[in-house]
Amino acid sequence: MKRTENVYKELYQRLMQQKTGGKNILAAVVDGPCAGEKIYLSGGEVLWASREGSMLANMKERLENLSGCGLFESEGGRIFYEEAGGRPVLVICGAGHVSIPIIRLGKSIGFYVIVLEDRESFSENARLAGADQVLCKSFAAGMEEIHGTNDTYFVIVTRGHRYDTTCLNLALQKEHAYVGMMGSRRRVEIVKEQLLKKGADRKVLERVYTPIGLPIGAESPEEIAVSVMAEIIQVKNGAGRSEGYTEGVLACLAGEQRESREKVLAVIISRKGSAPRKAGTKMLILEDGSCVGTIGGGYAEEEIKRAGLRMIKEKESRRELTTVRMTGQEAEEMGLVCGGTIEVYLEKI
Question: Which H or E run includes 28?
Answer without folding.
Answer: strand 24-29
